[in-house]
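Sequence only, no structure available. Ideas?
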Amino acid sequence: MQVLPVRLDGRVIPIITVLLLGGCASHHCAAVPATAPTTRISAPSANRDVDAYVDPPLGWRMDPLKVGSRHTHEVWVSPTGRTAYGIIHFSLPLPVGYDLVLWGFLREMERSEGDARMIDKRWDQDLAALRFVADGGRYRVRVNLFVDGWQGWAVYAGSLRNQPLMPDELALAELAREHTVVGLSAENSK
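Reply:
I predicted one. Tokens follow.
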């Protein structure tokens, strides 16, 4: 074993190097992938703008809140800018079912992105929500869709379609999506 001093920002930092003739050929050597996640999601916090408890990944930047006549949209973007975690809280003109809400979501996606294609759709009994994956012109979104009377939520993990997928970032966005609890105002009224 050899300890080498190295200067970094004017400080001396010892680096331990192990010189082995066999390198990492031994099964005892474990390589850490270069893309191993280094961040986690935050503790749940109430976000009244989207009426949900949110858990964004630490170190991701929050975009300005987008507000429309019938929706609010909060999104956190990864450091690379290729992945996002977001929540869209929307009001409905009438209490309707999931299929009609999904149709409206895809219609709005096509209007804003120029394209909307359903990739996968399934009901999740345990979540009591519709899970779907859709491709827009720029984004692929993996959505948990919740509908409750006159309102609904689309909680998503999204990625840019024209950039290489960042699996660790997507895993964090999906983890944040799965930890999101919608209906903050309903919870507070109990």
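The first strand starts at residue 2 and ends at 8.
Hope that gets you unstuck.
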